């Protein structure tokens, strides 16, 4: 295992509070944005508040958005989730679009901590070939082929399907049964 996974939580992901089994419930409880009214690094936050915040709050009544002006402090966001997790992020010198994207991301997150997922197997000598894909050994001319393609679809049209084979066998059986019945009727006469 590499050093990058030493301080991450490990485990398997689970849906928080069985979310999505009944109705969807937004997992964010509260978003707090702290900013300075005059500091230059808070300009993007002030632009976000002036232009996008009112529409954002009207579209998302399921959680609370707090604004806290703090004199001479760098802007940052604190998102609090239903499972008790908190997420802090600095908005130092971010523009309005970046702040809008990050606030939307915090709204849609489940609040689950970032964790390293465990694999079921481990090897000391991992493969250098990479992950296998069903497209690994395909003909490269398919990359520039336009679909639907008559040449490729003709292959499947020549072979009868399993349903067609069964129908054919059923018709033969009915024919044989009707011929057998006719021969029995002639013998009885």
Task: Explain what this protein looks like in three dimensions.
The protein is α/β, with parallel strands linked by helices and about 190 residues long. The protein folds into 2 domains: about 10-115, 3-Layer(aba) Sandwich (Glutaredoxin), CATH 3.40.30; about 150-189. It contains 5 helices and 6 strands, in the order E-E-H-H-E-E-E-H-E-H-H. Strand 4 (about 75-80) and strand 5 form a beta hairpin. Helix 1 crosses helix 3. The longest helix has 27 residues, at about 160-189. It is elongated and about 110 Å long. The chain starts with 8 loop residues before the first strand and ends with a helix.
Short description:
This protein has 189 residues and is an alpha/beta fold. The protein is built from five helices and six strands; from the N terminus they run E-E-H-H-E-E-E-H-E-H-H. The protein folds into two domains: 109 residues, Glutaredoxin (3-Layer(aba) Sandwich); 39 residues.
Blueprint of the fold:
Elements: E1 9-11, E2 28-35, H1 43-51, H2 53-59, E3 64-69, E4 76-81, E5 86-90, H3 96-108, E6 115-117, H4 150-158, H5 162-188
Parallel strand pairs: 1-6, 2-3
Antiparallel strand pairs: 2-4, 4-5
Helix pairs in contact: 1-3
């Amino acid at each position: 295992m590499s050093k990058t996974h030493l301080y991450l939580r490990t485990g398997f992901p689970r849906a928080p509070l069985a979310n999505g089994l009944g109705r969807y419930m937004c997992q964010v409880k509260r978003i707090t944005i702290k900013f300075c009214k005059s500091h230059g690094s808070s300009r993007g936050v002030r632009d976000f508040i002036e232009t996008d915040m009112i529409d954002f709050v009207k579209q998302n009544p399921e959680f609370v958005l707090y604004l806290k002006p703090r004199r001479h402090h760098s802007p940052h966001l604190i998102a609090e989730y239903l499972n008790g997790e908190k997420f802090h992020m600095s908005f130092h010198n971010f523009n309005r679009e970046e702040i809008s994207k990050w606030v939307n991301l915090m709204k849609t997150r489940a609040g689950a901590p970032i964790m390293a997922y465990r694999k079921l197997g481990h090897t000391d000598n991992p493969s250098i070939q990479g992950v296998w894909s069903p497209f690994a050994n395909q003909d490269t001319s398919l990359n520039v082929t336009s679909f639907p393609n008559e040449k490729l679809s003709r292959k499947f049209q020549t072979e009868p399907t399993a349903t067609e084979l069964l129908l054919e066998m059923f018709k033969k059986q009915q024919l044989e049964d009707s011929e057998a019945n006719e021969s029995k009727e002639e013998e009885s006469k």
